[in-house]
Amino acid sequence: MEIITNSRFNRAMKYLRALIIIFFSILLLCLAGILGLFIYAKILGPPPLAVPQSTLYFSNDGHLIGESNSGEKRYWVDIEDISPHIIHATVAIEDRKFYDHFGLDLKRIAGAVVADVKAMAKVQGASTITQQYARNLFLSHEKSWNRKLSEAFYAIRIEMNYTKEQILEGYLNTIYYGHGAYGVQAASQFYFGKDAKNLTLAEASMLAGIPKGPSLYSPVVSTEKAKQRQAIILQEMEELGKIHHEQLVAAKNEKLKIIGEYSQQQLSVAPYFQDVVKNLLKTKLNIDDRTIDLGGLRVYTTLNTKQQKIAEKAVQETISPDSEIQLGFVAMNPKNHYVTALVGGRDYEESPYNRAVQAIRQPGSTMKPILYYAALEKGFTPATTMRSEPTTFTFNKGKDQYQPHNFNNKYANDEVTMAQALAVSDNIYAVKTHLFLNEQTLVDTAKKFGITTDLKKVPSLALGTSGAKVIEMVNAYSLFANGGKASEPVFIKRVENYDGEVIYENKSTEEQQLKPDLTFVMSHMMTGMFDPKLSGYASVTGATISNQLTRPYAGKSGSTKADHWMIGFTPQLVSGIWTGYDNGSEITLTADKKYAKKIWAKFMEESLATKPIKKFKPPKGVKAVSINPTNGKLATPQCPVSRITYFSKGTEPTEYCTDHLDQPKKKQKPKKKKEEENEKNWLQRLLGR
């Protein structure tokens, strides 16, 4: 009997030793597995924290003008810019041991496992803040053991490579607060209309309760449930020693003003302009669509919000609501070619088609200054004369004919100067100049001005019958305003990624494309459209708006049957506008024909109202003389009209006007002695004595 008992005892001990060995083997394997897991996590290094964020767009002065619109609001703020109240409230309700664990709370996990086993399903969570952050970044929100294990592994990796402050910052910037708001900054703006750094204890404790169930605890959905959740959070904060009881009571009783909406003003600023910027991000900077929408980019643009508002206001106040006329408008700083305002149509919501940068329309006589600059390079001067009369041009060895007409069929039937022909927009003079230079000359010169749209090499090109874009024409006129320096239009100054690193900075340089002396001569000639001294057989084309202008401007209007343009500038600002019907039909209503000039005048006057009046400064190489604008000869005291006109040195006229020798001397203001001596000797100089 004793032998049997010993045998059983020995077998029991044998089994016990085996169990102990198995237990410790399993334990060692588990420890080795855990150690291996940590080593593997360390080898993998930090997981990329590529958090989806809204791309933000800023104006030239740094104001937010828009953001990517995907139905979600995602902003990133540094932890220093988050109220300590929301930090303490979040830790208190979501993860009290956040600062003590390594990413996993084993006690909470054990409790959750027991609950799940009892229910035979995944019913209880035990996620730490780190695990929730990992889930927000890398995983779905399905309740499964596989997802839970992946979540734990990512949490370990995050804890091993980032500080608690970095983890908390990331969590607060990615957690969902309902109503499309991701992150504490977006939530603060939506619920309370303020930045996260300015949240009070009452606001923070209410906000911290929302992520558990935005559809339940949002104060927009249920004020009662939001308050109940807030009370629990305040209690937790008191137990952790983050607030005193008096603070708890005050926060519970504080009456909160819930905004419950995002600022729509930011999203309505220059939508056509923003479309251009987004297109450039994709086509010029080669940034993919997802990064543009949710890459957290900060795009700093050239938009001047004041000028943009002025432009939109001028359009709204000028064009009749009953009119079907459309428009494209661009304003630009000629010094750096920054686009400062842009309107692509009357209503973006109704039609996002951008007529300022997409529409190709006939520019009409706004092409003439480019033609006449080419003529200056070929030896013409503002005093060069040609005959203005009904003319039929033949070309292609007499096979084809072209018969342009002046507006209202008004002709001088005499010689006219280039200066006057430009001011009254004489078409005959323009076509004669164009054909004299050779049709290719204008095509090549337009390219020097930055016009990239293909132009047809035809006689009527002088009158702007080949289409161009508003942005091209305004950019071309910038060369007149800045002394001939060419550059592409600039919309984006700088782009930063979500981490604040500059990934693009505009470094476009201006190229001296035109001759400064001839550019100035041309610019001064373009002031003539507002000068009644140049009216004669026809009125100057700016006569209808000259009484609205309070400073010197240069410019040119243009029109075809279906298009009306006005482009003008000062040394500080260039702007241009096209008006017409989208279907290209003829503009017959008188009111519709006048909108372009009126809008341009309103915009320029209001935009420059607070700026000093600047005249066009003559460069070296030009000379000013007083001429008779009708015949281009040096004016005499007997000439009824004289105008100061600039010439490239050596090209100014030397012959005096003799057309009015029998005319009585016109009354003039008292002159200085030197001027009187010059007048006495003018006839002797004329006769060569």
TrEMBL record:
In the C-terminal section; belongs to the transpeptidase family. In the N-terminal section; belongs to the glycosyltransferase 51 family. It catalyses: Preferential cleavage: (Ac)2-L-Lys-D-Ala-|-D-Ala. Also transpeptidation of peptidyl-alanyl moieties that are N-acyl substituents of D-alanine; [GlcNAc-(1->4)-Mur2Ac(oyl-L-Ala-gamma-D-Glu-L-Lys-D-Ala-D-Ala)](n)-di-trans,octa-cis-undecaprenyl diphosphate + beta-D-GlcNAc-(1->4)-Mur2Ac(oyl-L-Ala-gamma-D-Glu-L-Lys-D-Ala-D-Ala)-di-trans,octa-cis-undecaprenyl diphosphate = [GlcNAc-(1->4)-Mur2Ac(oyl-L-Ala-gamma-D-Glu-L-Lys-D-Ala-D-Ala)](n+1)-di-trans,octa-cis-undecaprenyl diphosphate + di-trans,octa-cis-undecaprenyl diphosphate + H(+). Residues 673-682 have a biased composition (Basic and acidic residues). Residues 328-604 form the Penicillin-binding protein transpeptidase domain. Gene3D superfamilies: Biosynthetic peptidoglycan transglycosylase-like, DD-peptidase/beta-lactamase superfamily. Keywords: Carboxypeptidase, Cell membrane, Cell shape, Cell wall biogenesis/degradation, Glycosyltransferase, Hydrolase, Membrane, Multifunctional enzyme, Peptidoglycan synthesis, Protease, Transferase, Transmembrane, Transmembrane helix. The chain crosses the membrane at residues 18-41. It is found in: Cell membrane. This is 1A family penicillin-binding protein. One of its GO terms (cellular component) is plasma membrane. One of its GO terms (molecular function) is peptidoglycan glycosyltransferase activity. Residues 652-689 are annotated as: Disordered. Residues 62-237 form the Glycosyl transferase family domain. InterPro entries: Beta-lactam/transpept-like, Glyco_trans_51, Glycosyltr_51/Transpeptidase, Lysozyme-like_dom_sf, PBP_transglycosylase, PCN-bd_Tpept. GO terms for biological process: cell wall organization; peptidoglycan biosynthetic process; proteolysis; regulation of cell shape.
